[in-house]
């Protein structure tokens, strides 16, 4: 299959949405500045300065800390594609200069080895993540080039990619990355350079994975020697990034190599379930979907579609979060979705967005955008505080009053990763082919593009996600025939579309109502999606959610926090789901639509000094409750929170 749809360039999309624009401004005015200061303070930038002789001291941070710098550059580049921000541009140029100067003459770039024993280069890609960091550098370079038509970083990326291509592949170094990322980056680099060898190398990394003998298994003894030689600092060993723990994830109980955690247990073509570390898995399968947009391979497509279906029907939280194990940051088993220990890493949400978007571009099927939207509005957005300065590495669905957000992390992959998704929001709103434009996300915005050889401007205005009404206006010089497709989200039970006040009777195909006709300047389309609050239940095999319900309205999943309720939220029983109503209020967290309803509550005083009692003697009283969108959780004082409510 080849790619059916493309995103318009970011510079052609202007977001003016009352929901998203404040968040985008917070991202580039607060979060990116905040992250830059942390990159300064935690040694990320100083590691590059040390390489070029502008700073002294030893390497700081985990070996793969360079990736955080590259992700920050990528996010900044997306912002600069649409907004002229001199201060941000100056900071980005400072970082670009450091990267340029630090690169070795042969193209190699990984500050951990450049500051230490150079003989370590490419000796253990299972753990040291040189290829992972290279992937993020390449993605940043592609983003910077496309945003600003500036080839400086692209030249660095090409030199590094050439260095890698000279060393890895058939009849060369037989190695694959421990942490997938470079596969997707190489596809993106191919698209801006037309160098087939980059695409071929991406295909090699994808297809070599899971085959016997495993290059990752071959590197385990070297990892053990690194540990024995005390090659890592005390801080590195005691951090959340545990060298010994990493080794354990790649061995089974008998001590033999087990590639499941690294998606190295079977060739991708033979894999049946999404397994292992959730971020790694998402990155790999996003790369497979992107690769398939350039290369026809029905067997590989069948596999990646099978894996995506397994994820969304058996291994994804109602919020769109993935990866349930806090110990290994990984998928576990079908329907194993505990709420209080859910890891649901913010980075995993980003990778699932990339995967879903690439699957959509490949197929044109709206079900992928449905999942992308759910992740975006819930699992991903919950990873950053409303003020843009505090983050969540994990995103559980039930917490006590000890839970809190963090300003930064030793392994700080999530903050810049989240920022690069938010900064690139414009590329997810629309999709186009030669004669068709799809409205994927309902976000007040304007896109300027060309369809059927005619320049057109499409402007949509909406109060989404608080309401489901969308108004679309067309501007074009000459009347032209083309198609407009409007996504009907899977959650929408009722919908209506009118063109110049005339109702459209077409049924959705692959999630879209597509209207093909001759369009005129000033044509006016209205989309109305019924947006009612409802309670949803989980598959009976999800043990953690049995006899419970989650509240949802439109694309938003809701949660309850003690701070909004007179009774502990863990004790509330959803006995009157028909009482649910939605109300917009400015008094909670700068304005949002909350859900309200009636719940039952057992009188805890009746249980005093009792552990068990007869069912007949239990009495309940009624109380009101308030629920807020899940993304807004933990933005006030520490308080207990739950997504799932007990059912009567």
TrEMBL record:
<dbReference type="Pfam" id="PF20736">
    <property type="entry name" value="Glyco_hydro127M"/>
</dbReference>
<dbReference type="GO" id="GO:0016787">
    <property type="term" value="F:hydrolase activity"/>
</dbReference>
<dbReference type="GO" id="GO:0005975">
    <property type="term" value="P:carbohydrate metabolic process"/>
</dbReference>
<feature type="domain" description="Non-reducing end beta-L-arabinofuranosidase-like GH127 catalytic">
    <location>
        <begin position="12"/>
        <end position="426"/>
    </location>
</feature>
<protein>
    <submittedName>
        <fullName>Glycoside hydrolase family 127 protein</fullName>
    </submittedName>
</protein>
<dbReference type="InterPro" id="IPR049049">
    <property type="entry name" value="Beta-AFase-like_GH127_C"/>
</dbReference>
<dbReference type="InterPro" id="IPR049046">
    <property type="entry name" value="Beta-AFase-like_GH127_middle"/>
</dbReference>
<dbReference type="Pfam" id="PF20737">
    <property type="entry name" value="Glyco_hydro127C"/>
</dbReference>
<feature type="domain" description="Non-reducing end beta-L-arabinofuranosidase-like GH127 C-terminal">
    <location>
        <begin position="534"/>
        <end position="646"/>
    </location>
</feature>
<dbReference type="Pfam" id="PF07944">
    <property type="entry name" value="Beta-AFase-like_GH127_cat"/>
</dbReference>
<keyword id="KW-0378">Hydrolase</keyword>
<feature type="domain" description="Non-reducing end beta-L-arabinofuranosidase-like GH127 middle">
    <location>
        <begin position="437"/>
        <end position="531"/>
    </location>
</feature>
<dbReference type="InterPro" id="IPR012878">
    <property type="entry name" value="Beta-AFase-like_GH127_cat"/>
</dbReference>
<dbReference type="InterPro" id="IPR008928">
    <property type="entry name" value="6-hairpin_glycosidase_sf"/>
</dbReference>
<dbReference type="InterPro" id="IPR049174">
    <property type="entry name" value="Beta-AFase-like"/>
</dbReference>
């Amino acid at each position: 299959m080849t790619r059916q749809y493309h995103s318009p360039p970011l510079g052609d999309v202007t977001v003016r949405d009352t929901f998203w624009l404040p968040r985008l401004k917070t991202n580039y005015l607060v979060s990116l500045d905040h992250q830059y200061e942390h990159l300064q303070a935690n040694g990320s930038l100083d590691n590059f300065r040390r390489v070029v002789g502008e700073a002294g001291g030893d390497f700081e941070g985990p070996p793969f800390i360079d990736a955080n710098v590259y992700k920050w550059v990528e996010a900044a580049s997306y912002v600069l594609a649409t907004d002229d921000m001199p201060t941000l541009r100056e900071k980005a140029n400072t970082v670009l200069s450091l990267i340029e100067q630090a690169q070795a003459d042969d193209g190699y770039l990984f500050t951990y080895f450049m500051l230490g024993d150079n003989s370590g280069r490419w000796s253990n890609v299972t753990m040291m993540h040189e290829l992972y960091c290279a992937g993020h550098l390449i993605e940043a370079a592609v983003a910077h080039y496309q945003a600003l038509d500036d080839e400086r970083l692209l030249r660095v990326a090409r030199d590094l990619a050439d260095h890698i291509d000279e060393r890895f592949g058939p009849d060369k170094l037989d190695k694959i990355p421990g942490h997938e990322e470079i596969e997707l980056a190489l596809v993106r680099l191919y698209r801006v350079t037309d160098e087939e060898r980059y695409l071929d190398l991406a295909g090699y990394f994808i297809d070599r994975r899971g085959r016997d003998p495993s290059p990752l298994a071959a590197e385990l003894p070297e990892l053990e020697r690194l540990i024995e030689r005390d090659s890592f600092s005390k801080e590195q060993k005691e951090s959340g990034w545990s060298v010994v723990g990493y080794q354990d994830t790649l061995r089974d109980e008998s001590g033999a190599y087990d590639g499941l955690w690294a998606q190295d247990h079977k060739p991708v073509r033979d894999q049946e379930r999404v397994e292992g570390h959730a971020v790694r898995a998402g990155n790999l399968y996003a790369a497979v979907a992107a690769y398939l947009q350039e290369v026809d391979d029905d067997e590989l497509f069948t596999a990646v579609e099978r894996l995506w279906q397994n994820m969304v029907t058996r291994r994804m939280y109602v919020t769109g979060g993935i990866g349930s194990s806090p110990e290994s940051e990984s998928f576990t088993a079908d329907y194993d979705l505990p709420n209080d220990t859910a890891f649901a890493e913010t980075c995993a949400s980003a990778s699932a967005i990339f995967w879903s978007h690439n699957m959509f571009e490949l197929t044109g099927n709206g079900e992928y955008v449905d999942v992308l939207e759910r992740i975006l509005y819930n699992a991903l957005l919950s990873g950053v505080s409303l003020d843009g300065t505090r983050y969540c590495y994990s995103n559980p669905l039930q917490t006590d009053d000890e839970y809190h957000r963090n300003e930064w992390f030793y392994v700080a992959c999530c903050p810049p990763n989240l920022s690069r998704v938010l900064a690139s929001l414009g590329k997810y709103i629309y999709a186009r082919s030669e004669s068709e434009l799809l409205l994927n996300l309902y976000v007040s915005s304007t896109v300027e593009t060309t369809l059927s050889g005619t320049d057109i401007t499409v402007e949509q205005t909406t109060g989404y996600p608080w309401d489901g009404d969308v108004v679309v206006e067309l501007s074009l010089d000459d009347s032209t025939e083309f198609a407009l497709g409007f996504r009907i989200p899977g959650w929408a039970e009722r919908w209506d579309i009118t063109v110049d006040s005339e109702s459209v009777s077409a049924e959705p195909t692959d999630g879209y109502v597509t209207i093909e006709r001759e369009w005129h300047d000033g044509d006016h389309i209205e989309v109305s999606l019924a947006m009612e609050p409802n309670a949803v239940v989980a598959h009976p095999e999800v043990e953690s959610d049995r006899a419970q319900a989650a509240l949802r309205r439109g694309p938003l999943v809701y949660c309850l926090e003690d701070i909004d309720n007179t009774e502990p939220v863990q004790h509330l029983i959803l006995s009157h789901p028909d009482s649910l109503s939605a109300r917009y209020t400015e008094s909670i967290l700068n304005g949002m639509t909350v859900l309200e309803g009636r719940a039952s509550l057992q009188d805890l005083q009746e249980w005093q000094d009792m552990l068990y009692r007869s069912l007949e003697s239990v009495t309940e009283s009624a109380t009101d409750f308030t629920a807020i969108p899940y993304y807004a959780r933990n933005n006030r004082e520490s308080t207990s929170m739950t997504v799932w409510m007990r059912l009567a």
